[in-house]
Design a protein that fits this description.
Cofactor: pyridoxal 5'-phosphate
Strand content: 15-25%
Helix content: 25-40%
Keywords: Aminotransferase, Lyase, Pyridoxal phosphate, Transferase
Domain Aminotransferase class I/classII large: 46-377
Shape: globular
Structural class: alpha/beta
Order of helices and strands: EEHHEHHEHEHEEHEHEHEEHHHEEHEEH
Distance between the termini: 48 Å
Largest sheet: 8 strands, mixed
Number of strands: 15
GO molecular function, one term: transaminase activity
Protein name: Aminotransferase
Length: 398
């Protein structure tokens, strides 16, 4: 099966040729030039799902790209969001509690502005998504790091340390987690929920990778744990990650807290920005009609994850814990004698651009590798990494 990228060019859905990728104008492929293989920013290298492409073509044909009419009424994504959460995860959110946002970063900024004051503590996992790590201190809030470590085959929070963080006002979670790819288990989430309840914390949960959990793992919505937990939780999500439409700028916030809803709705709508009308239509169609395409994506990502793991096993001094979710691998290069930041080393020697560990709060030995690409490109990436390690005289520390 193929997915046309243009009226006269057929591009295989998940095996686009390198020449097609090199011609793209997005940041992933354009930023660092043709000499660098990109495996950094969290975009996938696949053509847009046919149902989304057709829906956007139809909208343009109608000329339906003027000011939207949802500012003072129910948001057009409220019902599709609620239906999707119910069908895929068994959580039944109230559509009336859904608000539209341009993206998760602006959603977090709005929420911190509404619910905290400068100097208030915000607990966030460490390592973490760089824009979240940067937003908290940039807004004058005090970041409180909660380490996430790998124990007994699972990623776990340091709950002993958590008990010393009671002065915080907000618990900011990313689940599935970026950059580790952890899909947090129900028991882990319940312990976090109990802590939040005991210390009266607002929980803001980024669940943008929920549709990209690899079998047999499962995504558990934090607000779906119980009605009581939902009443102190804001869920931020979007179709942009799973359906590869980040440039269309559309996301939702489910405001489970009545107090947060009152504060949100008391603000002029202009304070929250306006979603892209094309993004809203793309999101609606993705959630309502895009699951066949998504199933193909998930199958390809599972194959690529295994391919990457096999390649890493042949890399001296590099290790990988298979991600439960996402298309992002958190590579540990601590066993290699690189002599410099791993991300910098691979850019300089392998000509592969991955995301450096320190950007996430990790050590210089860590890098995040995006494997949502073609088999051809992934093989080029892993081959160049391995050659760089061998050529540098990398050894395994005992």
């Amino acid at each position: 099966m193929t997915s046309p990228a243009s009226p006269d060019t057929d591009v295989p859905w998940f095996e686009p040729p390198l020449s097609w990728l090199r011609a793209k104008h997005g940041v992933k492929w354009a930023r660092y030039g043709s000499e660098m293989l990109p495996a950094w920013v969290a975009d996938m290298d696949f053509p847009v799902a046919p149902v989304i492409r057709q829906a956007l073509a139809d909208q343009l044909e109608r000329g339906d790209v003027t000011y939207p009419d949802w500012q003072f009424g129910p948001h057009p994504l409220a019902e599709p969001f609620a239906a999707r959460m119910s069908a895929r995860f068994g959580w039944q959110p109230d559509p009336h509690e859904v608000r539209g946002i341009a993206d998760l970063i602006s959603g977090l900024q709005i929420l911190l502005g509404l619910t905290t004051e400068p100097g208030d503590g915000v607990v966030l996992q460490d390592p973490n998504y760089p824009p979240f790590r940067n937003t908290v201190p940039a807004m004058g809030r005090a970041p409180i790091r909660l380490p996430l470590t790998f124990q007994d085959g699972h990623w776990r929070h340091d709950f002993d340390r958590l008990e010393n963080l009671a002065d915080a006002k907000v618990l900011l979670l990313v689940n599935p987690h970026n950059p580790t790819g952890a899909a947090l288990e129900r028991e882990e989430l319940l312990r976090l929920a109990e802590f939040a309840d005991r210390h009266d914390l607002l929980v803001i949960c980024d669940e943008i990778h929920a549709d990209l959990v690899h079998d047999p793992n499962q995504h558990v919505p934090f607000a779906g744990l119980s009605p009581e937990i939902a009443s102190r939780t804001v869920t931020l999500t979007s179709a942009t990650k799973a359906f590869n439409i980040a440039g269309l700028r559309a996301a939702v916030a489910h405001l489970g807290s009545a107090a947060v809803r009152r504060r949100w709705d008391s603000q002029p709508p202009e304070m929250h920005g306006v979603m892209n009308v094309m993004g809203v239509e793309a999101t609606r169609v993705a959630w309502e009609q895009g699951d066949d395409w998504l199933a193909g994506v998930r199958a390809h990502l599972l194959q690529q994850r295994g391919r990457l793991a096999a390649a890493v096993a042949e890399m001296p001094g590099v290790s990988l814990r298979l991600p439960d979710a996402t298309y992002l691998a958190w590579l540990d290069c601590s066993g290699a004698e690189l002599g410099e930041d791993a991300g910098q080393f691979f850019r300089r020697v392998a000509k592969v651009r991955m995301s450096p560990g320190p950007d996430f709060g990790g050590g210089p030995e860590m890098v995040r590798c995006n494997f949502a690409t073609s088999t051809e490109v992934l093989d080029l990436i892993t081959t160049q990494i391995r050659k760089a390690l061998i050529g540098s005289g990398s050894v395994i520390r005992r």
